[in-house]
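Customer escalation, tier 2.

The customer says the design service returned an amino acid string that "doesn't look like it belongs to this structure." They asked us to rerun it and document both sides in this ticket. The original structure tokens are below, unchanged.
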């Protein structure tokens, strides 16, 4: 029998696990980065920024980020419809962490 502390440890329920659950996926961190740099951003602008992403995938990611409280969606009552996305205060607080990833990448890029 092992006396290791890891035997009783569980990854689920950690702060790291929670944070990763919010930003996991191919596009979520890029969406957040785009909003950090250029907010507010319209759907079509976001689609161009991300490159090869379908409307369905982008829409699903935006809805998940909104449901998690990281981004806000603002719809303007006009024709054609205009929708803009921006970071919420919670999303903005996460940018401090993601900005550190950017800094690390810039320091270690070849």
């Amino acid at each position: 029998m092992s006396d290791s502390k890891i035997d009783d440890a569980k990854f689920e329920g950690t702060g790291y696990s929670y944070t990763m659950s919010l930003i996991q996926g191919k596009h979520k961190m890029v969406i957040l980065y785009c909003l950090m740099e250029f907010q507010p951003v319209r759907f079509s602008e976001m689609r161009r920024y991300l490159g090869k992403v379908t409307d369905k995938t982008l829409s699903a990611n935006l809805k998940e980020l909104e449901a998690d409280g990281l981004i806000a969606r603002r719809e303007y009552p006009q024709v054609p419809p205009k929708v803009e996305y921006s970071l919420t205060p919670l999303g903005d607080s996460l940018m401090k962490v993601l900005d550190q990833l950017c800094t690390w990448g810039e320091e270690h890029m070849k």
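Tier 2 assessment: The sequence is consistent with the input. Helices lie at 15-23, 28-38, 43-50, 55-67, 89-108. The mean pLDDT is 91. Sent an explanation to the customer and offered a walkthrough call.
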